[in-house]
Amino acid sequence: MEKKFSLILVIFIILMALVSFQAASIVTASPDTQVYYFTPTAQPDGRILYTIKAGDTCISIALLNNITEDQLLLLNNLQGDDCLFLREGSQLLIGMVEEQPTAGPQGTATSILPSPTPFNGTGELCVMLFNDVNGNALIDDEITEPPLSGGAISVNDSNGKISLTEQTNSTSDVCFPDMPEGEYTISIAVPEGYNPTMRTNVTLKLTAGDITAVDFGAQTSQIGENIPVQSEAQTRSPLLGILGGLVLIFGIGFGAYALRLQKK
Questions:
Q1: How many CB atoms lie within 10 A of CB 148?
Q2: Are 155 and 184 contacting, i.e. CB atoms less than 8 angstroms apart?
Q3: How confident is the model at residue 14 (pLDDT cuts 50, 70, 90)?
Q4: Of the candidates 210, 207, 153, 139, which has an alpha carbon nearest to the alpha carbon of residue 185?
Q5: Is residue 52 one of the residues assigned to a domain?
Q6: What is the pLDDT at residue 2?
Q7: CATH for 90
Q8: Are the CB atoms for 166 and 195 separated by under 8 Å?
């Protein structure tokens, strides 16, 4: 009985030893060392730089930073055998990031104010109808061609908002001050007994601050209509002239015949 108990105890001790050894082996086993690599932080100007370490090559640097070797060469202007002469401690450009603008102060929302009515300024239009004595459509300094009264002036803008009328006078031109700048059509009606010597309407653009003058000419309709004075020769009838010519021819023939009779 004692031998059987001793055998069981020995087996139990051996099993406990095996379990303890296995547990000790699990606890003391060192895990595989894991290497962590962090992409370098971008510089203030947006450049991402990698510092070369011992044993680095262009291919290893490209793979480590998840770029192609061609990209690495292009970013650093490397050519030929430059990758064979990498210097430990120097830096290579491995990427660029856009510089993020610094957020400025936020504006405070304000109520929308009504937009002011645009104002482009005003100008002045002056219109004159003159007595174009010689009919050349110009105000000549050599002869007197004064302003002509009795005519009618009409001024209209292209938007249909302005329509003005005025009568011409014999002393000066007629002016329309404080006219908003824009396009205007000016028309003239000459007084009775006159004919226009130029166009009776004109379209022009008035600019703010300008004084624009327009002249129209008219000539009396009686000029050049002289009543012809018939001379004495013009009052004679053509028929009487023909008869007179025939009588003259007959007289000459009769005289010649009479002379022949006398000679016989």
A1: 22
A2: yes
A3: confident
A4: 153
A5: yes
A6: 55
A7: 3.10.350.10
A8: no
* 130: CATH: 2.60.40.10
Residue of 78, 76, 80, 77 lying closest to 95 (CA atoms)? 76
> Is 241 domain-assigned?
no
Q: Which of 52, 205, 215, 245 lies closest to 132, judged by CA?
A: 215
- Find the domain containing 88 and state its range: 47-96
pLDDT interval class at 129 (50, 70, 90): very high
Q: How far apart are CA 113 and CA 116, in angstroms?
A: 9
pTM above 0.85, yes or no: no
CA distance 70 to 83: 12
Cβ atoms of residues 175 and 126 within 8 Å: yes
**Among 69, 41, 75, CA closest to 56:** 69
Instruction: Give per-residue burial for 25-50: e unless 16+ CB within 10 Å, then b.
Output: eeeeeeeeeeeeeeeeeeeeeeebeb
Residue with the bigger pLDDT between 251 and 45: it is 45
